[in-house]
Design goal:
The chain contains three helices and eleven strands. It is α+β, with helices and mostly antiparallel strands. It has a single domain, classed as Pnp Oxidase, Chain A (Roll). Strands 1, 2, 3, 4, 5, 6, 7, 8, 9, 10 and 11 form an eleven-stranded antiparallel beta sheet that branches. The longest helix is centred in the middle third of the chain and has 15 residues, at 106-120. Pfam families: PNPOx_N (PF01243). Keywords: Oxidoreductase. One of its GO terms (molecular function) is oxidoreductase activity, acting on the CH-CH group of donors. Residues 24-151 form the Pyridoxamine 5'-phosphate oxidase N-terminal domain.
Length: 172
């Protein structure tokens, strides 16, 4: 993935501060343990829930049971946002906007399953079967890939807001 150019929003940034570098944002996405996914319910209400995710090959990946609310929401409205960061006045908060697309290629899923174990440990070991993750207890999980259309980085040391634009982004 080519590093996208970041555009500092001076309205929400301390004077004379530079934009956050993409390398810092990517490191935050790779290292974050918890993300919050926001999706749209059928009645138009937002649904927000925590989950784990893996940054791999230029996208965030997460899994969920096929009957869970977020899976049903994303089936109807694939646009979503994944958020991670801290609940303190330090660090970097990141919001990834994109479209959640089911990942069903067994080869890609096998590679991603290994990434889950590397990041989260043995409790998150999945096998791959018929285009989805399977767990030891027989549970099946749909895997979603979210390629960013926009990434917002909110630095709190110093305060800056940086927008990274990717392909196919809708106008702001």
């Amino acid at each position: 993935m080519t590093a996208p150019a970041g555009a500092l929003d001076a309205r929400f940034s301390q004077p004379e501060e530079p934009a956050t570098e993409w390398s810092a944002v990517q490191a935050a996405l790779e290292d974050a343990e918890i993300f919050w996914v926001s999706s749209l319910q059928q009645d138009g209400e937002l649904h927000v829930t925590p989950l784990i995710a893996v940054w791999s090959e230029g996208a965030l990946h997460f899994c969920t049971g096929p009957t869970e609310q977020k899976a049903r929401n994303l089936e109807r409205h694939p646009q979503c946002a994944l958020t991670t960061g801290t609940n303190a006045f330090s660090g970097l908060d990141v919001v990834v906007h994109g479209e959640a697309v089911p990942l069903t290629d067994d080869s890609a899923l096998t590679s991603l399953a290994a990434s889950y174990v590397r990041k989260y440990g043995e409790d998150w070991r999945f096998s791959v079967k018929d285009g989805a993750f399977d767990s030891e207890d027989g549970g099946r999980a749909v895997v979603f890939r979210v390629e960013p259309t926009t990434v917002m980085a909110f630095s709190k040391e110093p305060f800056t807001q940086t927008r990274f634009r990717f392909r196919d982004e809708r106008p702001a």
